[in-house]
Amino acid sequence: MVKPLKGITLLIFLLVLSGCATLYNPATGRNEMIFLNSQTEVSIGESVIPEFLSKHSLSNDQVLNERLRRIGGRLANASDRQDILYKFYVLQDLELNAMTLPGGIVYVNQGLMKILNDDELAYVVGHEVGHVAARHIAKKLQANMAYQLLLGVAFAGFGDSSGSSASNVAQGVDAVYNLVSLGYSRKDEYEADRLGAKYSFKSGFNPWSSLTALEKIKVEEGPNWKVMGYFRTHPYVEDRVAALKVVIPEVEKGVIN
């Protein structure tokens, strides 16, 4: 157990470090209370990478990696959030899925890449970039985790080097990984879809390809699509398609910019 005085000191230190403030988020169009600054969010993401890669293997397919970096780079340049460096990696997994760690680290399974054309893939990657730009990941961490835990994850090795401290850091990494793996709220998913369409359009891709991407994934996953892969933590295809059909014309007209 952390002693009261030490706990208070750590909390004050983290609040000062994180720069707690109400900020206007251009991705969401709202003023939001953001406790985690970008440096801390990136540090947390980097701390989770070893845990993530212990469960998933990176693909060494240079063609797929170059394709993802090329498409991802264009979408990153179109993002409303430019205070972090987006990174894109292909995983060997054949399951149709994509995932983002805190700090803009985007992973796309090769199984998903192989069934989508560039415009369709741009929507999927844009959706992940949208989660980052809207700070969905940071807000999830804020809402679900204690600051002392975040401090241990983001700054492993800082201060106490005892075995107890190392154990707390390991638990913190595992907790962050599990939290990110749970997915997002339906509201966040619809918002990421909107941003994915927006960033695709701004990057020169066809945002209407989002509809064919969703249908392809649904067909590939078969009759159990509602509980598999890409749709495990996402709203149903029909609902997303209906929402995108409203959003895309607004994106093309510049109503959403």
Record keyword descriptors for this entry:
257 residues; disordered N terminus; single chain; three-stranded mixed sheet; two-stranded antiparallel ribbon; mainly alpha; 9% strand; globular; 59% helix
SSE layout and pairing:
Elements: H1 4-18, E1 21-25, E2 30-34, H2 38-53, H3 62-78, E3 87-91, E4 98-101, E5 105-109, H4 110-113, H5 118-133, H6 136-144, H7 147-154, H8 163-181, H9 186-202, H10 209-221, H11 237-253
Parallel strand pairs: 3-5
Antiparallel strand pairs: 1-2, 4-5
Helix pairs in contact: 2-7, 2-8, 3-5, 5-9, 5-10, 7-8, 9-11, 10-11
Report the sheet-strand fraction.
5-15%
Spans of at least 5 consecutive residues with low confidence? 1-13, 161-166, 225-229
Described by strand count, sense and barrel closure, the largest sheet is: 3 strands, mixed
Structurally, how many domains make up the residues? 1
The helix content, as a percent range, equals: 55-70%
Secondary-structure element order, as H and E? HEEHHEEEHHHHHHHH
Mean pLDDT: 81
Structural category is mainly alpha
Number of helical elements: 11
> How far do the termini sit from each other?
49 Å
User: What's the arrangement of strands in the largest beta sheet?
Assistant: 3-5-4
Question: What does the radius of gyration come to?
Answer: 19 Å
Instruction: Tell me how many strands there are.
Output: 5
Shape: globular
Structure notes:
By secondary structure, this protein is mainly alpha-helical. It has one domain (38-253). Helix content is 59%, strand content 9%. It has eleven helices and five strands. It has helices spanning 4-18, 38-53, 62-78, 110-113, 118-133, 136-144, 147-154, 163-181, 186-202, 209-221, 237-253; strands spanning 21-25, 30-34, 87-91, 98-101, 105-109. The strands form two sheets. It has a three-stranded mixed beta sheet. Strand 1 (21-25) and strand 2 form a beta hairpin. Helix 3 (62-78) crosses helix 5. The protein is globular and about 40 Å long. The termini are far apart. Residues 1-13, 161-166 and 225-229 have low confidence and may be disordered.
